[in-house]
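== Item description ==
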Amino acid sequence: MEKTELYKAAAYLLEKIENRSTPANDIINDYLASHRYLTSTDRKELLDLVWGTIRLWFKIHYFYPEADWPLRLEKIATDQTEKNMPDFVRYEVPEWLIPHIPNAAEELPLMLGQAPIILRANGDRDKVLSLLQADGLSVEPCRQSPYGIILAEYANLSDTKAYKKGLLEIQDEGAQLVALDIGVKPKQDVFDFCAGAGGKSLIFAQMMQNRGFIQAYDAAPKRLFELVKRADRCHVSIIKIVTKLPPPFKKFDHVVVDAPCTGTGTWRRIPDMRWKLTEKQLANIVKLQGEILNRAEQYVKPGHYLSYITCSLTIDENENQVQAFLKAHPNYIVLKEKRYSPYRTGTDGFYLCVMQKR
């Protein structure tokens, strides 16, 4: 693709991304699906330009507010000068958000880069590494998670032997560390209260050696359909899907709330979320999280554990949320509280608090 055509296509996509609420990834994928004649090189150049520009969103709008996208692309390609700018522009976040993030000056600069592709070995990691290398992939073990594998560059994993055998899942190392820190064990009962597509349920099943019981629920039942397929492929048999919240007659050893959140901890992977977040959305999410925690705690056995997780960096959704819960439920104590992030752990951003019901 010639430079003129490349910039024209990128400007078209960026204008759509700016003016629609649809996620950037969906807009880009629709465009590529309707332009199948583009070569793999063309696609890579276009994706690199569009996503690279999205990662400079606040700077572009701050320095070139009136320019159209063709001019903006030209400017950022040629303007290499160092400029003074406020912190919110330098960090590529809404200005109002900075006070809500502890250690923002350390955390936010490291959220600007691109996140690595991390896999989870469902079984012996050395065997999975060997299978992936035999398929021509460049991989290496993660340093912190005993299940983690770093994939050097994007590849179609569904064609690999490891994936077909159910020995592989995509899951950030931070998410793996959160599960490991919760510490579920074989033969326990676990309630994955906001299961989504089931990443936590599946790693719990691995930790439990497929012995015990996991009940997976999500307020949006369609999300659970993917878990059914993934569990079958990974040969997991201890997960039961529930599409309606049952009465709290049965109590569990572990109730895990991976709560809906702003997703600020995933901004390296989904950079277009940065400029879409509003203070009102944050307030609404905090309210919802509190309601979910209050419902979930009813399922915890006395003496056992309620774990609260977000993939957010804000204090509102994390420490403040837990403090509000403890004030309303003085029969709980905190056993473990931890943050994960590019700054702290070299991973996506997560928060975990493990509480015990007395």
Observations:
- The chain has three domains: 3-85, 117-170, 180-357.
- Residues 279-296 form the longest helix (18 residues).
- The chain is about 40% helix and 20% strand.
